[in-house]
From TrEMBL, chain A:
GO molecular function: ATP binding; protein histidine kinase activity
Gene3D superfamilies, sorted: Histidine kinase-like ATPase, C-terminal domain (3.30.565.10)
Protein name: histidine kinase
EC number: 2.7.13.3
Record has Transcription regulation as a keyword: no
PANTHER family: SENSOR PROTEIN CREC (PTHR44936), SENSOR PROTEIN RSTB (PTHR44936:SF10)
Substrates-to-products reaction catalysed: ATP + protein L-histidine = ADP + protein N-phospho-L-histidine
Residue intervals of the Histidine kinase domain: 14-226
Keywords: ATP-binding, Kinase, Nucleotide-binding, Transferase
InterPro entries attached to this UniProt entry: 2C_sensor_his_kinase, HATPase_C_sf, HATPase_dom, His_kinase_dom, Sig_transdc_His_kin-like_C
Coiled coil feature spans: none
Automatic annotation (TrEMBL), chain B:
Organism annotation: Marinobacter antarcticus
Domain (Response regulatory) ranges: 19-138
Keywords: Phosphoprotein, TPR repeat
CDD domains membership: REC_TPR
Protein name in UniProt: Tetratricopeptide repeat protein
Modified residues (4-aspartylphosphate): D69
C-alpha cells in the first residue's frame, strides 16, 4: 500500500469551509422561514433551538477556520477606524431575529467614540460571546463600549449565573487547558483571546477579561484593545 | 430592541431615493434580497443573474448601489464585474459596490489588486443586518457625496478643500477623509503635503494604509533605501497586506535588484494567486531574470486568470507561447515535447480567442517556427518560415515587437545575416526610441536560447573572477568557451582582449597575443556608437594600437 502524504489539517480546513457555507445557506433559509411565518414560529421553542444551534455550529466552524489560519501564521489584524456604536449595532443586527424569537431583551450602551480594530476578526470573536450569552442569560443581554486606560473596551453582559470561578482570569486559555469532559471546550475564548492578541499598538497588546461584577449580575466578557 | 429601530425613520427615505442592482446566480437569493431591500424602503431595484447582464444594465442605467455575489458559478466572478464596471467608468466613485460573499475569506479580499468594493457583506444576511449595514453606508455616502462628486469631476483642489473642511466636522469619517486627502495631494503631485498627512496619522497610530502611503512617497522621491526598509517592516507585521508587496517589488526594481523583486512577488502570489496584474508583473520579472520555469508558471496563471478579466490581452498568450518555446528548445525528450505541444495549443487558443485581431496569426507563426526548430523538426520550421517570409523581412509599419520576434526566429533557424540586416534597419527606424534600441542590442549581443545565455553569463562571471585573482590563462580559456556560444557579444570580447593584453604585459615577447587581440576586436567592427560598450571598445582599440607600435 502506497503511503499517501495527506495534509490532514488542510483536508479538515477545506471540509470545514464547505460545511460553513452550507450552514450559511441553512441559516438564511431559517431567517426567511421565520419572516414568512412570524405568527406561528416566533413562539416556537423548537424553531428557536434550531436556529440557535445552527448559529452555534456556524460560529464554531468560523472559529476553526480562524484557528487554522492562525496556525499557519496566515492571520493578521488589519486595523481600520470604526465608529463603535455603528459597529455594535451592525453586529447585533445579525442576532436580532433569534433574540426576538427567544424574547431576550438586548441593549447597546456605547460611547460615541472611534475605535481601531479589524472588524472581521472582532465580529468572529463577538459572535461567539453573544451566542454564549444567549445560552446562559435569563432575560437580557447588554453590549457596552467605552475607553478605559487607553484601551477600547467592548463588553458583553448577561443576567445568567455568571462564569464559574476557575474561568475568571485574564490569562490566555491554551489548548492544553481545553477540557473535553466538561463539555465546555473554551474554544471560543481561545479564539477571542487570540483575536485580542493580534491587535497591538506599540508594545501594548489586546487581551480578554472574564468576571461577574456587571450591572446585570451575570457574566461579563470584556475584550480590551489598545 | 432599542437599537436598529432608532435610525429607520430617516433611513427609509434614504433607501427610497437610490437605484439598486442585485447580481446573483440564484433566483431565490435575488428574490429574497429584493424582498429585504423593499422592506428597507427601496423601490428602484433591478435583478440580474450574470456578469454580462450586469454590465449591460449599468451601461444604459444609472445605479447607486450594486449588491453583487462574489461567486457566480462558471465564468466571471463578482470581482470581474467590479473591475469591468470601474474600468469602463460605468460606476461613479459616489456609487456603492457591495460584494456579497459566503464567507469573509481572506484570499478573496486579497485577490484584488486595484479595485476594491466599498464593503463586504457576509452571508447569511438577514433583514436587520442589511438595514443597519447598508443604512450606515448610505449615510456615509451622502455625507461624503460632495467630495466624491468633485473627485468624479477631477476637480481635485476643490475636493481637497472640502476634505480639510470636513475633518473637524465629521470625526466619524476621519480615516476616510485623511486617506482621501493624502491621495488627492499625491494625485496633484504635492508630495510634501501628502506625506505630512500620512505622518500625522502615523504619529497617532501605526496604521498600515498610512505606512504604505508614506512609503509610496519615499519611492516617488527616489528614496529607495528608506522605502524598502519601511515596506519590509510593514510586511513583517502584516504578511497578508498585498499592496505592500507590490510596492516593495517596485522599489527593489528601481534599485536595480530584479532578483529580490522577483522573490517578493513570488511570496505575494503564494499568498494570493488570483491577482492578474501581479502575476503578469512576476512573469515579466522572471523572464528578465532568465528564470524561465517561474516565468512559464506565472504566464500560465496569467492566461488562466485573463479568461474572464477585462485586462486580458493577446500579449500574455504570446508571452506564454514564447516562454514555453524557450523552455522546450533543444529538449526532444518527453518533457520538451510536452512543453512544445502546450506552446502550440496556447498559440492556437489565442488565435481563436482574439479572432478579430489579424496580426496574431503572423505572430503565432513566428513562434511556431522556433518551436519546430527547437524540437529538431527543421523541415516543418522552414515550411512555416517560407509561408511568412513574404509578409515580413523589411521594416514596415508593423509593431517593432513583431520584427524583434521575427529576428529571434531567423537567428534560431540559422539566418543570422538576414536577422542582422533586419535589426539594423529597425534600429534606423527607431533611432529615437531607447526601449526598442535596447531590445535590438540585447538580441544582437546574445542571439541564442536562454539556456545558452545563462551558461555564457555564468562563464563570463567565472572568467572575470579568474582574471581578478590573477589566473590569466584560466580566464582566457573560460572566455574562449563563452565566445564559442555568443561570438559577437561585445562585453565578452572586450573582457577577452583585456585578459590577453595583461598576459602580453607579462610576456612582451609573445606577439601572437596582440594578433589574438586584433582578432577579437574585429568581431565588434560594426558596433554602433550608442551601444553601452562602445566607449570601452574605442579605448581598448587605441591601447592595442599603442602596444603594436
Amino acid at each position: 500500500m502506497k503511503n499517501r502524504n495527506i495534509d490532514f489539517s488542510m483536508v479538515l480546513a477545506l471540509a470545514v469551509h464547505d460545511m460553513k457555507n452550507s450552514l450559511g445557506m441553512l441559516l438564511n433559509s431559517l431567517d426567511e422561514l421565520r419572516e414568512e411565518s412570524k405568527d406561528t414560529l416566533n413562539n416556537s421553542s423548537r424553531f428557536n433551538t434550531l436556529q440557535y444551534e445552527a448559529e452555534r455550529i456556524h460560529n464554531d466552524l468560523v472559529q476553526l477556520l480562524g484557528i487554522y489560519r492562525l496556525g499557519n501564521n496566515n492571520l493578521s489584524a488589519h486595523s481600520e477606524e470604526h465608529f463603535v456604536p455603528d459597529f455594535l449595532s451592525e453586529h447585533l443586527a445579525r442576532h436580532t431575529s433569534l433574540l426576538n424569537g427567544l424574547g431576550i431583551r438586548c441593549s447597546i450602551e456605547a460611547d460615541t467614540i472611534n475605535g481601531f480594530f479589524d472588524a472581521d476578526l472582532l465580529t468572529g470573536a463577538l459572535n461567539n460571546t453573544i451566542n454564549n450569552a444567549i445560552r446562559y442569560t435569563r432575560t437580557q443581554i447588554r453590549l457596552t463600549a467605552n475607553e478605559r486606560n487607553g484601551h477600547l473596551v467592548i463588553a458583553v453582559e448577561d443576567d445568567g449565573p455568571g462564569y464559574p470561578d476557575n474561568m475568571q482570569h485574564t490569562e490566555t486559555p491554551s489548548f492544553k487547558s481545553l477540557d473535553f469532559n466538561t463539555g465546555s471546550t473554551s474554544l471560543g475564548l481561545f479564539f477571542a483571546s487570540a483575536v485580542a492578541e493580534l491587535h497591538s499598538e506599540g508594545d501594548r497588546t489586546g487581551f480578554i477579561k472574564l468576571h461577574n461584577s456587571g450591572q446585570l449580575g451575570g457574566g461579563v466578557f470584556e475584550i480590551w484593545l489598545p | 430592541m432599542n437599537v436598529s429601530n432608532n435610525k429607520s425613520g430617516s433611513g427609509k427615505n434614504a433607501f427610497g431615493a437610490l437605484a439598486y442592482l442585485v447580481i446573483d446566480d440564484f433566483e431565490n437569493f435575488r428574490l429574497s434580497m429584493r424582498h429585504m431591500l423593499r422592506s428597507c424602503g427601496a423601490e428602484n431595484i433591478e435583478l440580474v443573474a450574470n456578469a454580462r447582464l450586469a454590465v449591460q444594465y449599468c451601461t444604459y442605467n444609472h445605479v447607486d448601489v450594486v449588491l453583487c455575489d462574489y461567486n457566480l458559478g462558471e465564468g466571471k466572478s463578482g470581482q470581474h464585474i467590479l473591475e469591468e464596471l470601474r474600468y469602463k467608468k460605468l460606476l461613479k466613485r459616489s456609487s456603492l459596490f457591495l460584494m456579497v460573499t459566503s464567507d469573509a475569506s481572506r484570499e478573496m479580499v486579497m485577490g484584488a489588486r486595484e479595485y476594491q468594493p466599498d464593503a463586504y457583506l457576509t452571508k447569511p444576511i438577514n433583514h436587520a443586518m442589511l438595514e443597519t449595514r447598508l443604512g450606515s453606508l448610505i449615510t456615509q455616502r451622502s455625507a461624503l457625496l460632495p467630495i466624491n462628486r468633485e473627485i468624479d469631476r477631477e476637480n481635485y483642489p476643490e475636493a481637497i478643500s472640502l476634505c480639510i473642511h470636513a475633518i473637524p466636522r465629521q470625526p466619524r469619517y476621519k480615516t476616510w477623509l485623511m486617506k482621501t486627502l493624502a491621495e488627492l495631494y499625491f494625485l496633484l503631485g504635492d508630495l510634501t503635503h501628502s506625506i505630512k498627512v500620512y505622518d500625522e496619522v502615523l504619529r497617532q497610530r501605526e496604521l498600515s494604509w498610512a505606512r504604505l502611503g508614506h512609503s509610496k512617497i519615499l519611492l516617488t522621491n527616489h528614496n529607495y533605501d528608506e522605502a524598502i526598509k519601511n515596506l519590509r517592516r510593514l510586511i513583517a507585521a502584516h504578511p497578508d497586506y498585498m499592496e505592500a508587496y507590490d510596492l516593495l517589488a517596485e522599489s527593489l526594481e528601481r534599485q536595480n535588484k530584479p532578483r529580490q523583486a522577483q522573490d517578493i512577488l513570488e511570496r505575494a502570489t503564494d499568498h494570493s494567486p488570483n491577482a492578474l496584474l501581479r502575476q503578469i508583473h512576476l512573469a515579466e520579472l522572471a523572464e528578465a531574470n532568465q528564470d524561465m520555469d517561474t516565468a512559464v508558471r506565472a504566464w500560465r496563471r496569467s492566461v488562466a486568470l485573463g479568461a474572464h478579466s477585462i485586462h486580458d490581452s493577446p500579449a500574455y498568450h504570446l508571452a506564454l507561447g514564447n516562454t514555453l518555446c524557450d523552455l522546450s528548445e533543444g529538449d526532444t525528450g518527453t518533457e520538451g515535447a510536452q512543453l512544445a505541444s502546450e506552446a502550440f495549443s496556447v498559440l492556437g487558443n489565442m488565435e481563436k480567442r482574439f479572432s478579430d485581431n489579424d496580426s496574431l496569426a503572423l505572430r503565432a507563426q513566428i513562434v511556431q517556427c522556433r518551436i519546430y526548430a527547437g524540437q529538431e523538426e527543421a523541415h516543418k520550421a522552414e515550411a512555416v518560415l517560407d509561408k511568412i517570409r513574404p509578409a515580413l523581412g523589411n521594416p514596415r509599419a508593423l509593431e517593432s515587437e513583431t520584427d524583434l520576434d521575427y529576428a529571434k526566429t531567423l537567428f534560431r533557424l540559422g539566418y543570422g545575416d538576414e536577422a542582422k540586416t533586419l535589426l539594423n534597419d529597425l534600429a534606423t527606424q527607431f533611432f529615437d526610441n531607447p526601449t526598442v534600441l535596447k531590445k535590438i542590442e540585447n538580441l544582437l549581443d546574445e542571439p541564442v536560447g536562454f539556456r545558452m545565455k545563462v551558461k555564457a553569463r555564468r562563464l563570463n562571471r567565472d572568467g572575470i573572477e579568474a582574471f581578478e585573482s590573477g589566473n590569466l590563462q584560466e580566464a582566457a580559456s573560460i572566455f574562449t568557451k563563452a565566445l564559442e556560444m555568443i561570438p559577437d557579444h561585445p562585453a565578452l570580447n572586450l573582457n577577452q582582449v583585456q585578459v590577453l593584453m595583461k598576459e602580453y604585459e607579462l610576456d612582451t615577447a609573445n606577439k601572437n597575443l596582440l594578433g589574438l587581440c586584433q582578432h577579437y576586436l574585429s568581431h565588434l567592427a560594426g558596433l554602433p556608437e550608442q551601444h553601452g560598450q562602445y566607449r570601452r571598445y574605442v579605448a581598448l582599440q587605441r591601447k592595442l594600437k599603442a602596444l603594436t607600435l
